[in-house]
TrEMBL record:
Species of the source: Rangifer tarandus platyrhynchus (Svalbard reindeer)
Pfam families per the UniProt record, alphabetical: 7tm_4 (PF13853)
Name of the protein: Olfactory receptor
Function noted in UniProt: Putative odorant or sperm cell receptor.
Cellular localization per UniProt: Cell membrane
Tree of life domain: Eukaryota
Family to which this protein belongs: Belongs to the G-protein coupled receptor 1 family.
G-protein coupled receptors family 1 profile domain residues: 39-288
InterPro entries: GPCR_Rhodpsn, GPCR_Rhodpsn_7TM, Olfact_rcpt, Olfactory_GPCR1
CDD domains on file: 7tmA_OR11A-like
Keywords for this protein: Cell membrane, Disulfide bond, G-protein coupled receptor, Glycoprotein, Membrane, Olfaction, Receptor, Sensory transduction, Transducer, Transmembrane, Transmembrane helix
Length: 337
């Protein structure tokens, strides 16, 4: 029997034998990762440079885009290595750090989505009081609370999980250090860890989810009271992107956790994990950029301003920002098609 002091590293088995498909999948997942990074960088750059977008709704969106970059970065690089080179060694400390940061980012996402739904609730249901209610102090408090809560929540689970004694085998049948495959390596009873994790996970997902549902119930009721069809369409348009992202995120979580872990095969678990670690983070910036007229307008204006500035002064605009802006916008359009 091994223990905490003898286990120095783990072996991530990745996707196993792919019969020659690993390079094809590597190209696909690398492309998705690049689109995720560029798409979220596009949103961050546009919001920071366009004063018209420096309002509470886009303040939360910039936090969300920043989160998505780190959320997928905590998983994707090591996953791509396992695809390209096969099973990959990860140190014990590296596994702990990956486990912790991935869990933290997932919790922050739940909290931020709830804060964004509350922002839309106030904007639609209390438009006259909205500027005073959703002021800078409130925005910072909601965003800061989301980040702080996200980083504190997984501490208990991480500490309990990695204090368990591990058996001689150190092979994790996954492409990252997720809870279920790590617990399978433990030599002792993991019931306490599983129950504690279940309670914490239920709280940090169900409470934000119910608050989000409650916000949208009030939003729908308020929109239905708007007499004109055009007014209803405008009101729904302000929250359609957020509602799409919420549906994707909680739909993915529901699919993963609705099936008992005991009945999930390793392959099924990896497929589900791919959806909420790679696919969803890629789709989110596409939804918020290509389906958001304000962001589209801001991108066009910024590119036009840069082009005009270059033509009038002969001095090229900042190359890094322009390259990211153009490349990200092209990537978003290609990904949509």
């Amino acid at each position: 029997m091994g223990n905490l002091t003898t286990i120095k590293e783990f072996l991530l088995l990745g996707f196993g034998s792919l019969h020659g498909l690993q390079f094809f999948l590597f190209g696909i997942f690398l492309g998705m990762y690049v689109v995720t990074l560029l798409g979220n960088l596009l949103i961050l750059i546009v919001i920071s440079l366009d004063r018209n977008l420096q309002i509470p709704m886009y303040f939360f969106l910039s936090n969300f885009s920043f989160l998505e970059i780190w959320y997928t970065t905590s998983i994707a690089p090591k996953m791509l290595q396992t695809l390209l080179f096969g099973p990959k060694v990860i140190s014990f400390v590296g596994c702990v750090v990956q486990f912790y940061f991935f869990g933290s980012m997932a919790v922050v996402e739940c909290f931020l989505l709830t804060a964004m739904s509350y922002d839309r609730y106030l904007a639609i249901c209390s438009p006259l009081q909205y500027p005073s209610l959703m002021n800078l102090h409130t925005c910072v408090l909601l965003a800061g609370g989301s980040w702080l809560g996200g980083f504190l929540t997984p501490v208990v689970t991480v500490a309990m999980t990695f204090q368990l004694p591990f058996c001689a085998t150190y092979k994790i049948d996954h492409f990252f250090c997720d809870l279920a495959p790590v617990l399978k390596l433990a030599c002792s009873d993991t019931e306490t860890v599983e129950k504690t994790t279940f309670l914490l996970a239920s709280f940090v997902t169900m409470v934000p989810f119910l608050l989000t549902v409650a916000s949208y119930m009030h939003i729908v009721a308020a929109v239905l009271r708007i007499p004109s069809a055009a007014g209803k369409q405008r009101a729904f348009a302000t929250c359609s992107s957020h509602l799409t992202v919420v549906t994707l995120y909680y739909g993915a979580l529901g699919t993963v956790y609705a099936i008992p872990s005991a009945t999930q095969t390793a392959v099924l678990n990896k497929i589900f994990s791919l959806f909420y670690t790679v696919v969803t983070p890629m789709v989110n910036p596409i939804v918020y950029s290509l389906r958001n007229k304000d962001v589209q307008k801001a991108v066009r204006q910024l590119m036009s301003q840069w082009a005009s500035a270059k033509g009038s002064s002969g001095t090229p605009p900042p190359p890094g920002s322009l390259f990211v802006l153009r490349t990200a916008w092209a990537s978003m359009k290609d990904a949509k098609h």
